[in-house]
Each structure stands twice: as structure tokens, then as C-alpha cells.
Design a protein that fits this description.
Pfam families: Aldo_ket_red (PF00248). InterPro entries: AKR2_Oxidoreductase, NAD(P)_OxRdtase_dom_sf, NADP_OxRdtase_dom. Residues 1-223 form the NADP-dependent oxidoreductase domain. The two termini are 34 Å apart. Helix 2 (21-32) runs parallel beside helix 3 and helix 5 (108-117) packs parallel to helix 6. It is globular and about 55 Å long. The chain has a single domain, classed as TIM Barrel, CATH 3.20.20.100. Strand 2, helix 3 (49-63) and strand 3 (68-73) form a beta-alpha-beta unit. The protein has a seven-stranded parallel β-sheet. The chain has ten helices and seven strands. By secondary structure, it is α/β, with parallel strands linked by helices. The longest helix is centred in the first third of the chain and has 15 residues, at 49-63.
Length: 235
Amino acid sequence: MKALISKGGRVIDSSPMYGRSEGVVGDLAGDLGIADALFMATKVWTSGRQAGIDQMEQSMRRMSKSPMDLMQIHNLVDWKTHMPTLIDWKKKGKIRYIGITHYIESAYGNMEQIMKNYPIDFIQLNYAITSRAAENSILPLARDKGIAVLINRPYQGGALFRKTRGRQLPGWSASFDCNSWGQFFLKYILSNKAVTCVIPGTSKPHHMIDNLGAGLGELPDEMTRKKMVRFVDDL
């Protein structure tokens, strides 16, 4: 968390399903005196209206964040029940933004219908240089509607690092200030104009610093993005 703040990062995304994550984030943010500097996001991940309310209130206590910056319906679990609560809480100022999440491409159709019919502020979904289905419809829709986008699984669960293990970065990656494979993969995502933020998970400070480097310097243009895809697909 110190590394995140030191390089200008702000977003921390959590969930009740991530073990002790919410409590750890809240405790450390308080101990470090950085809670106000962070944009905290978490999720509701249960069924039933009252169960959802109880869980969200518990999350806000654990993360010591009120109002919560972003509350998301995790993997669309019982979303029709939770959506009215989130909309009401936003009106009352208990949360600043509301959103929906998923991590598989088969959910995009449902997500798009919600984006078209409900006043959501954020979506969170999977997107990577080797998993590009989001480019077809849902990312353009988000951009058209002004919906912010968080990206999960940017490294395909580590598969991209296994794919490139032992290989050197192409020399032309220096043209967009890329210094590692991690930055190569993240810069591809960040250069999509619909994307707001990428949320790679790590517990190692040096990985945090490297990840944050993807937000510095140049980003690849459209021609270079296509070149990146061809290069990785051919490995």
C-alpha cells in the first residue's frame, strides 16, 4: 500500500469473498493515515435484500470507508434485488458510485443489458491482450455511455507470464516506454480509450512499482496495439 501511494496510485478493489482483505485494507489504511487518499471499491456478494444490506454495511465498517467510493454487484449475484438498494444508497450519499462486475465473457450480454437500462457508473470485467472479446461490444458501449471501466484478470491468471517466460521484450516496445512484460500487457489494456483503471493483484512491493510504471510515459497507438497482439499471438 505504501508503494501504491508513493507512485500516485489510489484504487484498491476488494470484496467480501477475498478472505480478510477488506479488514486488512481498512486497518492498514488507518494505520498509515492514507484512507482519505484512497479510492476504495468493494462489492455485495450474497442473495436477498437484507443480506445484501448487512453485507455492504459490514464491508464499509471493515474498510473504515463512509461513504464508500464504489459499491459493485459481484458477478451479478442477485443483481435485480441489490440494484434498487445501490441506487437508493447513492441518492442518500452512502456510496459515491455503483457498478457491476464479472470475470467471464459469457456474462457480457447480461452486463450490456444492465448498462443500457440502469444508471450505473462502473463496470468491472476481464480483458487482456490474449482475451479480447470485450473489445467487440461491451467496451465500446461503456465509452459511448460514459461508464467507467475497471479491468480484472489482466495477466490471465499468470498465463501471460508463463507464455513469455525466458523471452526478451521486443526492441520496439521502448517506443511506448515499456520496461517489462507486465507493463507490456498493462499498457495494451490502458491504451484502450474505454478503460479507466486496471486492477492487477499483487502482494509484492516491487511488482506494485512495476505495475504502476505502466501508467507512466507513452501508451501504444492503434497500429502498435495491433503489432503487440500479433507478437503475443505468435509466441
